[in-house]
Amino acid sequence: MQQAENTDISGEEAAAASIPGPLAVSVAPMMDWTDSHCRVFHRLLSPHARLYTEMVHAQAVIHGDRDRLLGFSEVEHPVAVQLGGSEPALLAQAAHIAQEWGYDEVNLNVGCPSDRVQAGRFGACLMKEPSLVADSVAAMIAAVDIPVTVKCRLGVDELEDYDRFRAFIDTVAAAGCTTFFVHARKAWLQGLSPKENREIPPLRYEWVHQLKQELPQLTIAINGGIATVEGVREQLRHTDGVMLGRAAYHEPYLLHELEVALWGGELQSREQLLRTLRPYVEHCLARGIALKHLSKHVLGLFHSQPGGRLFRQILSEGAHRPGADWSLIEQALAATTMTDRTAA
Ligand SMILES: Cc1cc2nc3c(=O)[nH]c(=O)nc-3n(C[C@H](O)[C@H](O)[C@H](O)COP(=O)(O)O)c2cc1C
User: Fold this and answer.
1) Cis peptide before 130 (omega within 30 of 0)
2) 3-state secondary structure at position 150
3) How far is the CA of 325 from the centre of ligand 1 (A)?
4) What's the pLDDT tens digit per position in 105-125?
5) Domain ranges within the chain, ordered by starting residue
């Protein structure tokens, strides 16, 4: 069973060998952002980062348009699908389908606090139901050979207590889950929007560090507010991996810098990297996919660089026009070679 394999790849051993573990860097699941086009771009920036889909509900996987929901490009490996849901049998079925589609991992969402998700009794509100999460994970593990992982919070609402958090992890780990991605803050289920729930509850990295210290046999990756190479290095001293969300999306070059910092290789320029995306862009355009669906993911590539604002502006204004093609990207790239630093 691959759950055991997950333990083999624990960061402790990798750190001992000075090799970053396979989950050292990952890009978080983000609805409306980490679609397949985005993941192809991120893969070019970082061959090693593990990439996550947007959350997809188990029911949708079972009954919906699988091409649209699960389709991905081969280059995206290693790629994980994130499932939402709380019915063990349905999650198991959806996990099995995801495995058949070729995903490398199935991740269960126990962190999303949106009203819609709560109404469906999944996401962050499951932090209150550890045994249901354990049953779900056990059913998924029984249905697949690929690793089943969990992305969770520290707690919800007034349940902000390390021992409760630890008890949640213990219960789910007892069901066979060996890998946890922890968004290091709690969520308020009432009164805060999902966006506020990513900003207002304080980050408590020390809880995640303590968890790893107490349960070294588990693979523990930390998430929340980490946005620099140094920040990642620091977290890797305490955990097996860092999951990056907004920083990876808004400043994608960070993924490339991390790739080189952790795995070596030569640092390529932003322009070089973007040009390697050209065959994929041309392929999509030929299939009738509008440029705007691709270019939106690269807007932050020149973040805080000379010409970065103009790059973003040219792409966001031009990509919506009918017939927009690669030449628009060339035009945007040309803006970044201008020496006028005020354009940054
Ligand atoms: C636009 C957006 C969509 C998100 N969608 C999901 C999701 O589908 N599943 C999930 O587990 N977390 C989702 N998140 C939360 C992120 O995965 C991550 O936990 C959070 O942004 C904190 O990490 P960061 O500070 O590095 O961004 C989303 C975040 C953003 C910004």
Assistant:
1) no
2) strand
3) 30
4) 999 999 988 877 877 788 989
5) 2-263, 270-343
